[in-house]
Specification:
about 190 residues; mainly beta; six-stranded mixed β-sheet; 18 strands; about 60% strand
Length: about 190
Amino acid sequence: GTPAVTIDAPLNGSTATANTLVVVTATATSTNGNITSMQFFANGVAIGSKNSSPFSISWTPTIAGSYSLTALATDIIGVQGFSTGVNVTVTSGVPPSVSISAPLNGATITVNTPQTISANASSTVGTVSQVQFFVNGASIATDTTSPFGTTWNPVTTGTYAITAIATDNLNNQTTSTAATVTVTAAPGPTV
């Protein structure tokens, strides 16, 4: 029969960083006898081979992107079998930049008055795919379109820390510095 091949590492859906070593490991069995070689591929391009168990190689991806890793085992009588692909996202390791542009740090706002929260976000190696907004650590909105923003209606007085997390198309993330605002009670009527 055909050798049964499995890539054991990295795990399907995992993330790696460009120019950083990734250990790729596979196992195989064959009803015909021993496995005599294992070839490894990234998107169909050979990245290494091993002629004895354990079948493990070192791969250093240099370009960010999505990769399907496969392994091809050959048994003692020359019968070959491919593994199922394992999908790995290679990131550049360069995170996007993000900052809260409104409200300004130190601003005082009135309770029950809707506020526009805006963020500036950019990426030098990809595109910003989303900005998620947080008030005191709780997510309040996610925006996937530039300009990035949302509306927040503070319903109680107090001090609030507003942050944003920008994610780029290569899954790099950055959290902004907090903009701290003070929410005060509405002024009473003048008599």
